[in-house]
Amino acid sequence: MTPPAGSLLSADQLRKAYGPTLALDGAEFSIHPGEVVAVMGPSGSGKSTLLHCLAGIVPPDSGTITYNGRELSAMSDAQRSALRRSDFGFVFQFGQLVPELTCVENVALPLRLNGTSRKEAERAALSWMERLEVDDLRKKRPGEVSGGQGQRVAVARSLVTNPRVLFADEPTGALDSLNGERVMELLTDAARSTNAAVVLVTHEARVAAYSDREIVVRDGKSRDMERVV
Amino acid sequence: MSIGHTLLGLLESGPRHGYDLKRAFDEKFGHDRPLHYGQVYSTMSRLLKNGLVVVDGIEAGGGPERKRYAITDEGITDVQRWLATPEKPEPYLQSTLYTKVVLALLTHRDAADVLDTQRSEHLRSMRILTDRKRKGDLADQLICDHALFHLEADLRWLELTAARLDKLREAVAR
Amino acid sequence: MNVRQWAADLMLGVRFAFTGGREGWTRAVLTAVGVGLGVALLLLTTALPNALTVRHDREAARSDITFAIQPMPKANDTLVIADVDEDFRDKQVRGRAMEPEGPRAPLPPGVDEFPAVGEMVVSPALKELLDSDSGALLGERLPYRIVGTISEEGLIGSAELAYYRGAEGLAEHITPGNVERIDRFGDPEPVEEQSDPVLILLILVVFVVLLMPVAVFIAAAVRFGGERRDRRLAALRLVGSDSRMTRRIAAGEAMAGAILGLLFGAGFFMVGRQLAGSAEVYRISVFPSYLNPSPALALLVAVAVPAAAVLVTLFALRGVVIEPLGVVRAGRPARRRLWWRLLLPLAGLAMLYPMIGNGRDNGDFNQYLVTGGVVLLLVGVTALLPWIVESVVARLGSGGVAWQLAVRRLQLSSGTAARMVNGIAVAVAGAIALQMLFAGVDDDYTKSTGQDVSWAQMEAILPSGVPLDRAAEKFRDTKGVKAVFAYSESWLGDRPQDPDNGTTLTVGDCAALREIARLPSCAEGDVFVVHGAEWDGEEDVTKLAAPGRKLYVDPSYEGGPERPAVPWTMPEGVKAAKPRTGLLAGIDRGGFLMTREAMPDAFAPALDGHAYLRLDESVPDVHDLVRNTTAAIDPLADAMTWASTERTDRFDAIRTGLFVGAACVLALIGASLLVSQLEQLRERKKLLSALVAFGTRRRTLSLSVLWQTAIPIVLGLLLASVVGLTLGTVLLKMTGTPVGVDWTGVLAMTGIGAGVVLVVTLCSLPPLLRLMRPEGLRTE
């Protein structure tokens, strides 16, 4: 199947097994620039695996993933890593901030990995931290800030490289609903303002409500609700 | 929602005439559905009849004459009683959705489809609410949240049912 | 608090130490191995004094050559015994020829019956050597039938080569110190032997240097898995154990490792004890039975080690509050202060300082001061290192991402990093100092022999009466001998008894004489007098060289045995010659030189033959071929190998031993570094996966792991070098030896330390890469 017209990232017939467990069994996906797509489904349905495949973290056993006209599964590990550094951003549920680095250093980290100088990277990091209202935490270490603040720092980090696609895996999973909503608001606002696409894995309807549309993953198969309706 | 009690409550801060009451109600509570003036009028008549309000005076001006209502002591007691009485939780035992799912199973249609479609519809509503919440003030946010939480509850039921479809199918077939 | 509760808590801790799957076991075993090695070393230390005493006693019990100037009369309980020691390769063979003079002649310890002429009894090690192919050369020199073995009480070590053979006609040769008549074995007047203070110093330092890193390691080992333990302790608090109980449980865990370590240690010691029977250090071997630690000291070790483990744990837990929801370090740890840390090594230096120069002059070192000083200096390393790591790391600035990650991590937990490296630093510091000491002391001994090994490599001393020409011929025919310079030598005096003036007399052919002096010309029949030699007084020589002067060859001295004192009248026409320096044992030869023709026959019994041999040392066993020839020429002839080559060999052996020991300690510490490194990585599994997700290169993370280990180790090695060189310098000054730095040794030691870092990093890479696989992101 050719990728849907105008799509930035699309996947077709993805299959991925972890040992005897079939995590993905013919999943499909596509997203346009500036679009927020929620990936929903019960635990163990393969949501996270779909995200990992789409982001080029895990190569699928079979199927195609096309990003911006390039075939992801044809790339080497190093190429995919480079792509993730330059074009993608990531937010996870927890355990993603380096505990030894200060918040601003954490945010600057992806830029530094791309070879940006420390000063420049930290300046860019700070401006993103301001947008996410956590610039007063710059000197603090992740252990010294609250969960909601930490998650905002993580969102700032995921956006600091101006990614074309932002992958968020249960970004509010460890937060109370007030903090979770605030993080979602800031995340989607920031993504819209930079025209980034957001792949949002969540099992919470209230978080999924921040998306433009949702796809449902069940037993390794995906269902694009927009095309169905 | 008891409109009578709400209007009574609004009168507690001072006497108002009918249109004034309607405006105050719409401002604070009528986000989605403004009150029709007829509703205010009939409610006030009932309250007057029951002795919960009295006519405080009649305003004669350029336009039609307007009654000014004031709350009586009895009225205050009534508001007090209403606020102190907990609302009876909704039983939610009659569910159309449940009926649809069971019927789909009985007729060997795809029940998961029914659920998915419903989820999609719920999410669409939730998106609209979320969007409004983002743009609105605190009152808007609280109202929307109330609705969102109810929708979310439905969705959680949807997910749970989806996960138990196989068992349900067995039970229905028996 | 009742005893049962205590015991229950400790036991619970013990149980925790061994549960927890493979990881728990690995940690427990590693701790136990570390503690075990330490315990084995401790047991060895406690056994060593005993071993040395036993050796000393046995040596005294069999002593025979008493240097008695007046020989005792022959009786039916006397024995004539001759020292017939041999050298074989680099080993010495203790040999005795015995001739009992009556039925009640004393038997040497460990021998049941006198061997008859042509027979011998040998030590088990010698028997084994003679039976082997490599011993065949020695067999040529000992062509006697083996009729028995010397049992343990007659030997001072399992590897000692010794024999007793039967002989006859020994009585004629009685000379003090060589052939003597005795009526008993054993030193009649045992004197408390004054041990070489330098040797004592060496032994003390060796033990301190080997024990210190082990102690540091034990302290670090019982803290293995600290974070995991903290979580477990918090969980225990949550289910209701109080703070004291938790501490006791933690102590129990540490104790478990230490007790298992004790068992390991006892095992290592038993194995080591057996191995000790087949090992030889410094030509000293011991029987396993010598190595019995005194029970009191062993008991002390058995009690002290687990107690120390418990104390270290409780010490580490001070300032830590174990709450049900986690472990809280009390407040922000105070910034490390320098002054008291500096105090330790300075106090160590202060203890050693008063003993500078003691080694050569007034002997003794105060053992307590030496041990205390060395321990304080090395403990100073462990005290200074955390401060240095903290201060340096706090100042480390920008760099790549890998560098930043590593530096930040170190800044947060510089204490942990320093603790892990402490062991390595102490081991390297000690090893450097020890090596300097060995090198310096050994150099000292080598220099003092000063023989010119480029001129000749062996010297054969032939008893008077052995024809020199024939002997020289036989040496020339020996494989591997390139040149032979043969001389007959004696002493000249101006009186037959107790002469006032005297000098040497050397007889040889012209070619041989030219080797030892600058002659104007030489023809057979010439006699020369050497002027200007350092050894002989110029005045004496000139006085003695007056023609017609009557001199005596080989005069007697008061109290000594009667010598021939052959008279000689100084002839006319004695030519003057100049000395050549640097020959013959480093002493230029003076006195009178005489060609063969000029020597009266009567001199023969008064002259000893000396043959200086130039060898092709690439010929295998060339020294033993020469020794065999020497023995064939005359059984009482003696061949000596000139020094310096063997000395260096011995030093090399020690250096190798030191390297092996240090490498083992370092490997052990490296293993513990690896364990803690892996533990740390596993705890960061989620984070690693997240970092990989947003595109961090494997190289970056690997490098950061490398930096994280390398930075503290480099600092540790620098400090270790400084402290090691300081300690080495002080020790050398104490022994009065010129200070020289063995830079290759320093480099090698630090190199091994650096190698450990590299290996640890390399070993932690595969698990790191495995943890970096995206599967780590899976939560379901």
From TrEMBL, chain A:
Any one Pfam family match given in the protein's UniProt record, by short name: ABC_tran
GO molecular function, one term: transmembrane transporter activity
Species this chain originates from: Streptomyces coelicoflavus
Domain ABC transporter: 9-229
Cited InterPro entries: AAA+_ATPase, ABC_transporter-like_ATP-bd, ABC_transpr_LolD-like, MacB-like_ATP-bd, P-loop_NTPase
A GO-annotated cellular component: plasma membrane
Keyword annotations from UniProtKB, A to Z: ATP-binding, Nucleotide-binding, Transport
Superkingdom of source: Bacteria
Protein name: ABC transporter ATP-binding protein
From TrEMBL, chain B:
Regions crossing the membrane: none
Name of the featured protein: PadR family transcriptional regulator
Signal peptide region: none
Coiled coil residues, start to end: none
InterPro entries: Tscrpt_reg_PadR_N, WH-like_DNA-bd_sf, WH_DNA-bd_sf
Native source species: Streptomyces coelicoflavus
One protein family per Pfam: PadR
Domain Transcription regulator PadR N-terminal span(s) in chain numbering: 7-77
